[in-house]
UniProtKB/TrEMBL annotation:
This is Oxidoreductase. Pfam families: FAD_binding_5. Residues 4-178 form the FAD-binding PCMH-type domain. It comes from the Bacteria. PROSITE patterns: FAD_PCMH. InterPro entries: CO_DH_flav_C_dom_sf, Diverse_Substr_Oxidored, FAD-bd_PCMH, FAD-bd_PCMH-like_sf, FAD-bd_PCMH_sub1, FAD-bd_PCMH_sub2, Mopterin_DH_FAD-bd.
Length: 298
């Protein structure tokens, strides 16, 4: 279905299936896909974007739910943040539900979608560190019914990109059946953009801890050495508790990995220390990581 707004130069296409949406984008290379439109409309209102055509995704029912598949959850890219925040979804993937509930005021959660968070890849996107910690993958729909699957971290890091006519259709998330936490700090009281966020999940089957830090860089950061170090301290067959000193050390380890000290200068001079704002951010990340691990292990 295509509608032409009176006296407007743009076209709005409303496909009913993922393949129809791909076909529309292939036929109109300048078209922009839109679901919730929270980031798109902000860019339009700011004058940064003037799309010649839009392909609306809200009528595609196949990407607005989820299903179980071989120990994974297959999440439609059109799932809204509000839907992911409900109790039934929280029982499935608690870390992602917590991030969805923290993602701004109700009007943003009602409109914003999982796929939109991924494709926009805003550094402050609350779902992104959770997806990175869960090692989720995205299923991309392409022309001619083609499908390909890549790690979500590759897309966020720009290691792999969407080709013309491609859309993120689904997100595959492993069901770990273990504690998951998401915490964020904002610059004000109440819902707001994260100044730092931490997602942490336990993976008892692999005796691992996965942590991702958001909002401090262009993409979520995984402090792999800190993960491996703290996983080696956990009694996976027992109570899984850690002494407070170990939790504090983990937080400091994560923060230093994500916000490192300046490198030495080439002339051998003593490097300047971190500026006060960076030191404050490092302390914030350390506190979030410490609390996230403590809650996961409690």
């Amino acid at each position: 279905m295509t509608t032409h707004a009176p006296h407007a130069s743009h076209t709005v296409t409303l496909p009913a299936s993922l393949d129809e949406a791909v076909a529309a984008l292939t036929a109109m290379p300048t078209a922009v896909p839109v679901a919730g439109g929270t980031d798109l409309m902000a860019a339009v209102n700011a004058g940064h974007l003037r799309p010649a055509a839009l392909v609306g995704l809200n009528r595609i029912s196949e990407i607005r739910g989820w299903q179980y598949l071989d120990g994974h959850a297959l999440l439609g890219a059109g799932l809204t943040l509000a839907r992911m925040g409900r109790p039934d979804f929280a029982a499935l993937i608690p870390g992602l539900a917590a991030a969805a509930r923290a993602a701004g005021p109700p009007q943003i959660r009602n409109a914003g979608t999982l796929g939109g968070n991924i494709v926009t890849s805003a550094p402050t996107g609350d779902t992104l560190p959770v997806l990175a910690a869960l090692e989720a993958t995205v299923i991309i729909a392409g022309p001619g019914g083609a499908r390909r699957e890549i790690p979500v971290s590759h897309l966020l890091a720009g290691r792999e990109m969407l080709a013309p006519g491609e859309l993120v259709g689904f997100v595959r998330v492993p069901l770990l059946h273990a504690p998951q936490t998401f915490l964020k700090a904002t610059g004000r009281t109440g819902p707001g953009r994260a100044t730092a966020s931490v997602a942490l999940v336990l993976d008892p089957a692999r005796r691992g801890v996965r942590c991702a830090v958001g909002a401090v860089a262009a993409m979520p950061l995984r402090p792999l050495e800190a993960e491996q170090w703290v996983a080696s301290l956990i009694d996976w067959d027992g109570e899984r508790g850690l002494v407070p000193e170990a939790l504090t050390a983990f937080g400091d380890y994560v923060a230093a990995a994500c916000i490192p000290d300046p490198a030495p200068s080439e002339d051998g001079a003593e490097p300047a220390g971190l500026p006060p704002a960076a030191l404050h951010l490092r302390r914030t990340v350390a506190a979030l990581a410490r609390r996230a691990l403590g809650r996961a292990l409690s």
